[in-house]
Design a protein that fits this description.
The protein has 421 residues and is mainly beta. Helices cover 12% and strands 38% of the residues.
């Protein structure tokens, strides 16, 4: 598998991709009720431009002539330990792109990492200790070195597990790179297909899978030996498995389903002890979801509704009061994420917002969040793909996925404005 330099694919990309999309840019002069002018013509064809609305530079990273690309899910670790490469998905495989400061953002080498068709591409996990990505292919958990491209089998998945679509969850690597964790729920994908075939939407799929109380489990795998251990079983559809970024023995997972019906966030020790309902619900009107760790591993952040208002809330594991910031107006987002120094948040907008944007949220002394818009998402179809924001190691770039061109692509937007703006 050879690395592809941007210079070697730029001509092909612009010749095929831009020609096909210029006509689409003309046709899509009105999307979602917003007029698209020269700015949106530029983003349909350019590989780098300054967002006319925000003054921040946006760069296309997945510069392939055809086929969609996607970032990893928002809480998945996608950066190498040095922060010099970002792992993303394209056409059924995993790739890395060099995002080091040796060249301008977006012009680094793109390298294919996987030969096998991988499952759950958005839920691959990059080690925090080594340049290795863990993923599922066939009925095996594999590890590929992002620098050398050497691949080895970590573990064989049991034959009676459901490895289809929504039924397998994870992966997550722990802080010292000794364990991988995930979850499996037999039958979820079949329910999703049945509901879809009957004309149902995703909300109905989730509700029916929740009501089915299918057998579900959380597992760990010893990276050195390949030993797979089921550490927790139940019937509450386990999902969103995330090891603490600092404590190798602490694992967070979610009870999946309608947020207003589940006890959502749980912690467990890697040996299966210490099962804890992190934030028990006080009333049947409140909900929590889309949880993620703080960089310190001391706080779990989540989207919270207390029955009256929506908030971005952090729960300290050491005890004490939660920290809650009201979410208002266009701050509403599908997902939130946090900078590597824990000082600000990134948010990926919502299709129901008046002006959907990739934006930053800065905590203020009065308990509010100041919004810094980064990238206009007009024309992005949130039903087809969630942007799933994450940040570069130096907190200078926000990575996300968007499909305003007609297919999913991976982008980076600068945290700093261009000097001329």
């Amino acid at each position: 598998m050879n690395g592809l330099t941007i210079s070697s694919i730029r001509t092909t990309f612009l010749a095929r991709f831009a020609r096909r999309l210029v006509s689409a840019a003309v046709a899509l002069t009105l999307i979602g009720g917003y007029a698209l002018g020269a700015e949106n013509d530029a983003r349909m064809t350019a590989t780098s431009w300054v967002d006319a609305t925000t003054g921040h530079r946006v760069v296309l990273l997945s510069r392939f002539p055809k086929g969609g690309s996607g970032v990893l899910y928002f809480h998945q670790h996608a950066l190498t330990p040095a922060g010099d490469k970002l792992v993303f998905a394209h056409a059924g495989a995993l790739y890395s792109i060099d995002i080091s400061n040796r060249q301008p953002m977006g012009e680094g080498t793109i390298t294919r990492l996987t030969d096998l068709a991988a499952k759950l591409l958005g839920f691959a996990a990059v080690s925090r200790k080594r340049p290795v990505v863990y993923y599922v292919a066939g009925d095996k958990i594999l590890a590929t070195n992002i620098d050398t491209l050497q691949t080895r089998t970590i573990a064989q998945i049991p034959g009676d597990w459901d490895l289809t679509g929504e039924s397998l969850a994870g992966l997550s690597a722990n802080a010292d790179d000794t364990l991988i964790a995930g979850a499996n729920t037999n039958g979820v994908t079949a329910i999703f297909k049945s509901v879809k075939d009957a004309g149902g939407k995703r909300g109905q799929q989730i509700a029916q899978a929740y009501e089915a109380h299918l057998p579900t489990l959380v597992f760990t795998v010893d990276i050195a030996t390949g030993k797979l251990t089921v550490i927790h079983r139940g019937n509450d559809w386990f999902n969103h498995v995330q090891f603490s970024p600092t404590d190798p023995a602490t694992l967070m997972f979610a009870h999946e389903g309608p947020w207003n019906k589940v006890e959502r966030i749980w912690n467990i020790r890697a040996d299966g002890t210490g099962l804890t309902d992190v934030c028990p619900r006080g009333t049947d009107r409140e909900y929590r979801g889309h949880e993620f760790w703080s960089p310190s591993g001391q706080t779990i952040w989540f989207d919270y509704f207390d029955g009256k208002a929506r908030m971005l809330t952090g729960h300290p594991l050491s005890g004490g009061h939660d920290t809650s910031y009201p979410i208002v107006g266009d701050q509403y987002s599908v997902h939130y994420n946090i900078s590597h120094d824990g000082s600000f948040f990134a948010a990926d907008g919502d299709g129901g917002n008046k002006h959907p944007m990739i934006h930053l949220l800065y905590p203020q002394t009065d308990g509010t969040l100041r919004t810094e818009p980064l990238c206009d998402l007009t024309g992005h179809n949130f039903v087809r793909a969630e942007p799933n924001v994450s940040l570069s190691a130096d907190n200078k770039w926000v990575f996300f996925m968007a499909n305003w061109t007609g297919m999913n692509q991976v982008y980076a937007v600068s945290v700093d404005r261009e000097p001329s703006h």
